[in-house]
Design a protein that fits this description.
56% of the residues lie in helices and 5% in strands. It has one helix at residues 6-52, and strands at 66-67, 74-75. Strands 1-2 form a two-stranded antiparallel ribbon. The longest helix has 47 residues, at 6-52.
């Protein structure tokens, strides 16, 4: 009635291996997310210290995009060179 055939045993082993690999993958993703949060926090502290010291921030400001009169592409016209 509850006999273990070779096929059932093989499927059971494959399920166990898949679960173990899944837990390992989840652990690696959790570690990477924690490292990313540490990097973001460190960069935020550096930027805050830079701003407190009166230095310019490392972030670039947004540029206003306008249509180029020659080619019609939207770009920062102070740096755009369309060649037309």
């Amino acid at each position: 009635m509850f006999g273990l055939s070779a096929g059932k045993l093989l499927v059971l082993i494959l399920v166990i291996v898949a679960v173990l690999y899944g837990f390992g993958y989840a652990g690696r993703m959790k570690k990477q997310r924690a490292e990313l949060e540490q990097i973001k926090a460190r960069l935020a502290r550096q930027e805050q210290a830079s701003m407190a010291a009166g230095r310019q921030t490392t972030r670039k400001t947004a540029a206003e995009l306008e249509a180029c009169p020659k080619c019609g592409a939207y770009a920062d016209l102070s740096t755009h060179r369309c060649g037309r």
